[in-house]
Every structure is written in structure tokens, then in C-alpha cells.
Amino acid sequence: MPHVVEITHVQEFSASHRLHDPSLGDEENRRLFGICNNLHGHGHNYVVEVTVRGEVPSSGMVMNLNELSRILAEEVIAHVDHRHLNHDVPFLEGVVPTAENIAIAFWRRLQPPLTDYPGCRLTKIRIRESRTNSAEYRGETTGSST
Q: Which residues are catalytic?
């Protein structure tokens, strides 16, 4: 019986952002996002964790972690490190850059190139924006909770 293992690669980046929904008024944005709605933005030292899952082949590697590192660096980190996420990152244009939305956007960037690696699939993106706050996305969509 094959063994299925998840492997995770971690990288860090620094970026600024402003939590602001242009469809809401200034007062509602301040109420909803608090100090994170600062007109000039604020920064984080983010940590992104990318997890892939697959059967362990004869090579012993679900995926070469050096390849996963390269893909993350090229597809994501090169575009967001030391940038203002609201203004400088085309794939985040029109998105309120919460940790949740960043995780979803990173999934969309990473999932296509990872399909080139048979036997493994992207299973999780975790974004840590501080020691105490993180968001995790597993790619699934759920229906409404009625």
C-alpha cells in the first residue's frame, strides 16, 4: 500500500497593505478594518507555507523541495516582497488584501505550475501576517450554510 505524505515549504516576505473596500464609505471602512484602514497602509513580515500531498515514489520525494521553493519564489515572492499589495501587485488588483484573500490569490498563482509535477497536488496555503494571526486555504469551495 503506498504511503501518502504532505510536505511543506516556507518562505517569508515583507509587504505593506491597506484594508479598504472601495464599495464602502470611509466611516464603514474604519469601523470594519480599524487601524488596518490607515490611509497610507501598514506593513507585515509575512510567512507563507505551501503544502503539497502525494504518494511517496521510489525517489523518496513527493516533490523536490528545491523545485517547490523555486516555483514559490518565481510565482509569488518576486511579485510581493517589499511591495504595497494594494498598488504594486497586478494579481491582487481589486482585492482587499486580507490574509484570507492573499492565501486565495497565492493558490491561484501556484496551482497551475504545480500540475506539471505528477503524483502531487497543492493541498494548503497558510499566510501568517503576525505571530498570532494567520489564514489557511485548502482550495475547496463550500456552499452556503443554510
A: 36, 82, 129
